[in-house]
């Protein structure tokens, strides 16, 4: 499972390509936050497979309203980002189904 991220995050057991360091595209998953929403919209077709999962990191409850218009698949609160490996495992199992 290829993962690209606009956020410099790590998830044990997963290789995550930081978008600003250069990713080669065909990502199955893309991770973003409110500050990168417009970069995501601009680059998602070059970064991701036709069918992909997007995970938004939420800093504030009002972020949900902003993200809901961008077709985000999953959300995780910034304070819960240490649980990102668990979320990625769930996403991987759903993609396999």
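Sequence proposed for the structure above (97 residues):
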């Amino acid at each position: 499972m290829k993962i690209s991220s606009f956020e410099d995050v790590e998830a044990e057991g997963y290789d995550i390509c930081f978008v600003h360091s250069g990713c080669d595209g065909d990502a199955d998953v893309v991770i973003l936050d409110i500050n990168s929403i417009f970069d995501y919209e601009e680059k998602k077709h070059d970064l991701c497979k036709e069918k992909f999962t997007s995970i938004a990191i939420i800093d504030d409850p009002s972020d949900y309203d902003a993200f809901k218009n961008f077709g985000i698949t999953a959300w995780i609160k910034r304070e819960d980002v240490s649980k990102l490996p668990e979320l990625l495992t769930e996403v991987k199992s759903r993609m396999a189904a």
